[in-house]
Amino acid sequence: MCLGVPMQVVSVGDGDIVAEIDGVRKEASLMLLDEEVKEGDFVIVHAGFAISRLDEEEAQETLRLMREVFKPEDMA
Amino acid sequence: MKYQDEFRDRHVVLGLAARIREHVAGRTEPMTFMEVCGTHTMSIYQYGLRTLLPPQVRLISGPGCPVCVTPNEYLDRAVALCRLPDVIVATFGDMVRVPGSTSSLQEERARGADIRIVYSPLDAVAIAARNPEKRVVFLGVGFETTAPAIGGSILAAKKQGLANYFVLAAHKTMPKPMGVLSADPELKIDGYICPAHVSTITGPEIYRFLAEEFHIPCVITGFEPADVMQGVEMLVRQVVAGESRVETQYSRVVRPEGNRKAQEVIREVFTPCDAPWRGIGVIPGSGLRIADAYAVFDAEKAIPVAVEETREHAGCLCGEILKGKAAPTDCPLFGGACTPESPVGACMVSSEGTCAAAYKYGQ
């Protein structure tokens, strides 16, 4: 129930969006989103509402920090 | 899906696990971290993350499944409502199979009650608009993530001038039960894996008292396996350094101020109240009831109904499991009398429940 799913915005309408994940498209309301979104953005959709935009720079920074920890010899 | 794949990279997860082992090398005293979100519980079981951690690091599950912490009395009221001939009960799917004192919504549906499973509370508003001769009651449970969505549905119903849409509200807010569990000497929690999407709405400040008053490190953590592992690594680092701060691992989604628009909807539609938690009891100020200005949408006030006396299920350990004091396998019913196909307790019903996760992934 609390599941929020990252989806990619396919189109932006008047107060709602169509977003897609794994080929599945759903409408989501923008009533609860306090950020601008545009086509191609990723958003977290929960119970039919977009609740947050996914920040690509922050995502890349998190991955960079994770990779810093990764050492090939640990994988042996 | 580009982000999901990268945060599931096995090498990164193993690298983080190796870093955790380095941090705790030579330590004999164990550290216990609690996750208080059902989606984290699912992720930890699904990816077998416990098996990657050193023996000094223990993960336990807390009261993070919204269906699981909803007491029987609420389900009994929902059952009483669905027995009224002009009522349609609309709900998220996992509520349908939770047993109340003597019945469940699923059993009532088999007897002819009109119960609709919806994906969004806005779908329930649409059902009300299409069925003006019926009263549509949405079962409003969940934490800070779900409350604004249900508040939004009330605002939408008001805007459409609907007089036949109601919410049976039992929303709960997360930080208070964490305070109760933090003060429990039997549990001795050394760190919290804080819920990701609750924090998306609230922002990180709500956990500050846990770090400052209880000296417990808190890390807001995403749901992918690398997220959880990095969250644990950040907690371990704090414990080893003797620190207790609120950190955000899930910074790609959680902003320092949270989601102000959603916070505003909660403030507009709901009022804080005392709330009963399965297993924990009544926690003052830990719930949200519908504000007086929106009382016409409040099913409890607008549709009076006689509710049967509440009974608990004999032998079920859900209460202790939700407090992190028992593991699913400690329960005598687990996997025998209680399975996902035929659940006795709420923790086995919801896919976010600890027992359901333990059963499905066999740990």
TrEMBL record, chain A:
Originating organism: Geobacter metallireducens (strain ATCC 53774 / DSM 7210 / GS-15)
Family, per entry: Belongs to the HupF/HypC family.
Signal peptide: none
Protein name: Hydrogenase assembly chaperone HypC/HupF
Molecular function per GO: carbon dioxide binding; iron ion binding
Pfam families noted in UniProt: HupF_HypC (PF01455)
PROSITE patterns attached to this UniProt entry: HUPF_HYPC (PS01097)
UniProt record, GO biological process: protein maturation
UniProtKB/TrEMBL annotation, chain B:
Family designation: Belongs to the HypD family.
Alphabetized InterPro entries for the sequence: Hyd_form_HypD, HypD_1, HypD_2_sf
Natural source organism: Geobacter metallireducens (strain ATCC 53774 / DSM 7210 / GS-15)
Protein name from the UniProt record: Hydrogenase expression/formation protein HypD
Biological processes, Gene Ontology terms: protein maturation
One annotated GO molecular function: 4 iron, 4 sulfur cluster binding
Keywords for this protein: Iron, Metal-binding
Organism ancestry: Bacteria, Pseudomonadati, Thermodesulfobacteriota, Desulfuromonadia, Geobacterales
